[in-house]
Amino acid sequence: MPVGLFRVCLLVITAIVNHPLFFPKENGTVPENTEEIIQKMKEREESLRLEQLRLEQEIADQEATQKALEKAAVVVEESKEEKVRWDMWTALSMVIFLLIELWRQDFQEGNWQDIGGEEDDMAVLGKAFKGVTFPNKAVLASFYEKRILGTTGDMARMREMVEGFADDLLEALRSVCNRDADMEVEDCMGVGSMYENWRVRKPFVCDLIVPFAPPEPYCFRCQTWCSGDSFPPDEQGYGTIKVCRAGEDVTGCICDKTKLGEDMLCLLHSQVSSTRPSSEMEDLLCFKNTQYLDADQVMKWFQIAVTKAWNRISHKYEFDLSFSLLDSPGALKIKFKSGKSIAFNLTPVVQYENSDVYFISHFPRSSLAADTPSSTHWFLTFAVYERRFIQLVSKTLPANACHVSCLQILSFLHGKQCSLTGPSGLTNYHLKTVLLHLLQARPSQDWAPEKLEARLQDMLKFLEKCLHEKKLYHFFIGNGNVPAELGFPIVFQRAEPLNLFRPFVLRRDIYRKMVDTFHEMLRNMSALINEYTVHIPLAHTNGIRKE
């Protein structure tokens, strides 16, 4: 702007100085071309005015550009500050997430078994118990003596009879099998409620597992969902069994994965041993065109082998033997001429490495595993360790401890309720898992016989909590507090806890049925117990309440 004003002033001064009126000619007369000079001066003035406007526009444009640059600089500075602020919040959020994850892992490793054994934790539960009359100590004691003890006295004699017959049957099975081609059958072991002394409902059924192994030179290579390989969520708790030659790498040689060409030979494997006919693997009970053991093939083999074994020794016994369930390989029933019968399950299993964890081919009726992903997926059973844990803990409990009584009463009530309203997803294995958690969480003195009522309420409240949260964790898997005396495999202790209620999360109809059955059992509990209880005088009941 000052430059433009200066030029205008300079122009005016020049015009004044050169004006003819100020410097007249010598004759003092006005020239004849005055009009022409005036016209030129007007044109000059117009051109100067246009130049002034152009200069003013340039100055305005420069000022606008400067303001835009300053504004852009401010925006960039603010964006930098915002980015720094956002980076700070991101880092803080990441730190918080890591802290939560570390706390979760610590909770699962050390405290996930802390199920609220304190009275304060139990106080927040029990919403379903409102309006439910719970039997007192005298009624529970009378019910247990009359209904439970009165019907379980013959279990020991039945176990002895079944085990003796099973040993004889398996010995005959070994004799009819081809030792060079058939599976090698080992001695059976008793597991489950009959051998843990808490079975209450008839008919009494003994559960026996029979480990078997492949013939030489083959061996089993087991893989579980927690062995490092990725298993889908619905396959947690399962594993696969690969049939390999002894000394063969489980991952296989590179010659099985790469085409070496006709003129190249693997130095580790001959041409004969590198390719196995599919018929050979099928003879080893593998799934078609694979090396993985097939549970359905095992079922067929075992049923045929048991039938042959029974035909060899049937003349020694005065009863008949038959398969009681078509979908279970070893569900057998002994039928006497008197009409009485004894049922037992003889189920083939595969040992996991050198432990007492077993891959089980099929579960009996009302089993823990309803639908297996495929016939090459085997469920893992920890029944041997469960029995040992109960025996180990029982040695530390007071005399006549009430832990088994609690499980027997709860199993009886659940069974009676299912007979009234139909079966539900809740099984006796779930009830036993609740007891195992409480046995580990509560001190030994809390299981004294006079605390039967309190511990039974604890089991019901804990089960209610699990149903509400849809979470009941397997006792052994992911439990880092398993007693070292059991020799439990560390790989399962370090695994993620296995939620036994996970199948019910997506199947809302079964879950609703399970919850309704539980609530109905609570409402009918007093009626079911009083039905099998001798009348107790009111004065005696009140006296116990005052104590």
From TrEMBL:
One of its GO terms (molecular function) is protein kinase inhibitor activity. One of its GO terms (cellular component) is nuclear outer membrane. It holds the Pfam family Mab-21_C. It is a single-pass type I membrane protein. Enhances Ca(2+)-mediated inhibition of inositol 1,4,5-triphosphate receptor (ITPR) Ca(2+) release. Residues 38-72 form a coiled coil. It is found in: Cell membrane; Nucleus outer membrane. This is Inositol 1,4,5-trisphosphate receptor-interacting protein. SMART domains: Mab-21. It comes from Catharus fuscescens. Residues 404-481 form the Mab-21-like HhH/H2TH-like domain. The gene is Itprip. Keywords: Cell membrane, Coiled coil, Glycoprotein, Membrane, Nucleus, Signal, Transmembrane, Transmembrane helix. Its main location: membrane. Residues 1-20 form the signal peptide. Belongs to the ITPRIP family.
